[in-house]
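hiii so um. not sure if this is the right channel but i have a protein structure encoded as tokens and i wanna go backwards to a sequence. like what aa goes where. can anyone help
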């Protein structure tokens, strides 16, 4: 369990960033101010205590959209793009027991590079409303991502709104097609570039094999794809599972997990970023959702890897202490259409530790024939204050 937690920590600042004035500082001399904004009222009140301006800014952008599953409607959390384009959208997942706040550094850089970028919380984690708790097993997570991306794709293209979701006695309208047949062929004209870090890579592989028409390309970051589900955790009695989950959200354990992922952090900074990584744990349904996932068996995608047909970019931190680099080489060999890129002096969560490098690699992979590749300096770099 601690290994899974370390793999999804995502709550530490990039050690390579310099401490300067609290601005985003772009290499093209443009400057974007950071401000907290109004936080959505569905976020836990602990969000007010977060100090990092990038996390605060991204938290202020988190929204909920209605996603209709087979057993009911879920108001699902995500970060929407500032602009929509005609190109394939980039959809960012996150690691085990984490949230879209993992992307607080890289998402703004991808947007500045001109990519339409979404960050989506996986069902059972993040900040979705699970008051009427659905199953949070692999099949439900896959179905949720599929339905979520249907809605993300059609919400600005369909003008017929149908009342399919009732939340807190208020009717929520969202766009749907009158007939289910042909939904993807009619409305999903831009299959997504799906980005999965750590366990999110297993989510991405499982989804792309099941719904290949929905995925244009894959980006897998320090992929955790060779574990056989949750192992012995699936056989735990529920009482023991709940006790373990309660321990899992404790500050000391999360702090320790963060220290495994990033070395040399000041204690105050480490605490602040650990609190970012565990913010979603304050939601009342978090324990039930995680126990449900654990006892369901979790992700086992080993047999699916060879069936991935999409072009795939594998990104790996050279100093990853969580997953052996030999597994990166194995993944590269087993995926039919993959390239492997290693980031020097970087650990298990490159999109937090080296967001400039990750954003450049993604931009080059998504738009290889455009000027970004010829001029990597056009991708912004940022400096983060303490």
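sure thing!! here u go:
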């Amino acid at each position: 369990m601690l290994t899974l937690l370390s793999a999804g920590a995502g709550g530490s600042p990039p050690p390579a960033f310099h401490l300067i004035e609290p601005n985003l500082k772009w290499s093209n001399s443009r400057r974007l101010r950071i401000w907290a904004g109004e936080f959505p009222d569905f976020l836990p009140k602990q969000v007010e205590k977060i100090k990092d301006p990038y996390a605060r800014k991204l938290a202020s952008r988190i929204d909920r959209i209605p996603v209709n599953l087979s057993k009911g409607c879920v108001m699902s959390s995500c970060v929407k793009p500032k602009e929509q384009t005609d190109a394939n959208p980039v959809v960012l997942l996150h690691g085990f027991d984490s949230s879209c706040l993992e992307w607080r550094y890289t998402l703004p850089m991808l947007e500045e590079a001109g990519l339409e970028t979404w960050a989506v919380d996986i069902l059972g984690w993040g900040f979705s409303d699970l008051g009427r708790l659905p199953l949070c097993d692999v099949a439900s997570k896959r179905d949720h991502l599929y339905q979520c991306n249907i809605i993300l794709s059609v919400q600005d293209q369909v003008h017929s709104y149908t009342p399919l979701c009732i939340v807190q006695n208020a009717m929520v309208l969202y766009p749907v097609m009158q007939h289910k047949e042909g939904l993807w062929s009619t409305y999903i004209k831009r299959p997504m570039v799906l980005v999965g870090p750590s366990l999110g890579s297993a989510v991405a592989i499982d989804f792309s094999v099941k719904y290949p028409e929905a995925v244009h390309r894959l980006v897998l970051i320090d992929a955790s794809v060779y574990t056989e589900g949750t192992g012995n955790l699936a056989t735990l009695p529920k009482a023991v599972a709940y006790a373990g989950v309660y321990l899992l959200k404790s500050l000391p354990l999360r702090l320790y997990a963060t220290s495994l992922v990033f070395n040399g952090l000041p204690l105050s900074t480490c605490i602040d970023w650990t609190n970012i990584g565990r913010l979603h744990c304050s939601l009342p349904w978090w324990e039930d959702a995680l126990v449900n996932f654990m006892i369901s068996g979790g992700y086992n995608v080993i047999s699916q890897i060879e069936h991935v047909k999409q072009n795939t970019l594998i990104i790996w931190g050279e100093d990853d202490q969580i997953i052996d680099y030999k597994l990166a080489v194995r993944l590269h060999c087993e995926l039919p259409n993959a390239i492997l890129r290693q980031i020097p002096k970087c650990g298990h969560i490159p999109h937090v530790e080296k967001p400039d490098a990750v954003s450049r690699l993604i931009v080059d992979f998504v738009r290889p024939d455009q000027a970004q590749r010829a001029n990597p300096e056009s991708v912004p770099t940022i400096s983060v204050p303490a």
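oh and The CA atoms of residues 151 and 175 lie 7 Å apart.
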